[in-house]
Amino acid sequence: MGIRTPRPAAILIALLLVATGCGGPPNPIQAGVKEFPTDVLLGSTEGSPAPSSVAPAPIEEPAPILVRPLTDFPSDEPRPVPTPAPACPAADPLSSPANEAFSDPAGSPPTTATYAFRNEGRYSVKATTETAGVYAGSERSVRDVRRDGIAYEFTVSDTLGSATRYRVVPRTGSAVPQAEDPGLYIVSISSQTPEKVDTFTPVQPMRLAGFPLSNGDRVQSTGASPTGSTVMRFDSTIGRLHPDEPGRRDPKGRVDACGSLLDIWWIDVAGTIRGANKNLTFTTLFAFGPQYGGLMLEERWKVSGTDAGATVSSERRSVISREPAVPR
C-alpha cells in the first residue's frame, strides 16, 4: 500500500508563478496617441488649425494575464521541478558514536519524546489477496514513564498502530540477590487496525534480556494472558548471527540515524504466539540502546501464520532517524 503525499499549497503557488514567468512576454497594452499641432509644441506664431473632427482612439484595457495549468506546458519550455525533500544523509563510516552502549542501562529512564523512523518491508493477507508495502515513515513516542524503586517502565507507541510497554530492572551492584532479576522486560503489546485492537498483557512481564549484556547469553520466556487464551513463547539471544561465518555472533553494531552512528547491542529473538484462532511464528532482531534508557533504535520483524482465519505474512525494518536524548 503506497502513500500519496499531498503537494503543499506553497509549492503549487510557486509553480504557478514560475509558469507565468516562463510563458513569454505579456500581452501588449494598446493605447491611442493624441496628436498635438507642431505650432503649439514649437511656439509657432501662425494661427492654429481647426481641431480635427476625428475622435481619438480609445485606450484599451490590458488583456488579462492568464495562468496556464501545470499540465499545459509548451514542448519548448522546461517544466519547473519542485525541490525534493532532503534525503536522509548517510553517516561517515569512519566516524565514532558519540555515546557508547555499555552492558548495563544508563540507570535513568528514557526522555519523553517523539522520534521519526524510516520503514521498509511488505505484508500480505491472503484472505483478502492483499499484498502491499509498509508506510515509508512513521513516528514513535516515548510516554508514560514511571519509576518503581530502582526499576522503571515506559511505553513506546507507533503511529502505525502498535504500542509496547517495557520494564527495565538495573543491577543494584550489591551481592545480595535482587527480588527481580536484572534485565529488560516486555510488560504488554498492543496492535490496532481499523477492524480491531489486539492487546497481550501477560500475567508476569516477559524477560527479553538480562543485565549485564554479554555475547551469546540466552533467555527463554513464556507469557500467558490472564485468561490463558493467548500464550507467547520466545528464545532471546544477545548477538546477531554473522552472515559469512555460521555459528558466530556479533554482539554489538551500529545504527545509522541519518548521519549519526549509534552504538547498539543486538538482541535476536525467535518465538510463537498461540491463541484462539491465532497461530503465528515470528523472528525479531532488536538494536538495543541501553545508553538511551533502553530504547530500540532499529527493529527487523518477520511474522507468518494465521490470524482470525487469514493467512498473514509480514516483513518490516524500522530505523530511527535521529539520535535520542541521553537520560540525565
Query: What overall geometry do the principal axes of the alpha carbons give?
Result: globular
pLDDT < 50 stretches: 1-52, 61-86
- What is the distance, rounded to the nearest whole angstrom, between the alpha carbons of the first and last residues? 41 Å
Determine the structural class based on helices, strands and strand pairing.
mainly beta
Number of helices: 2
Overall pLDDT confidence? 79
Order of helices and strands: HHEEEEEEEEEEEEEEEEE
The percentage helix is under 10%
Radius of gyration: 34 Å
Please report the total strand number as a whole number.
17
The portion of residues forming beta strands comes to 35-45%
Q: How many separate domains make up the residues?
A: 2
The largest sheet, given as strand count, sense and whether it forms a barrel, is: 15 strands, antiparallel
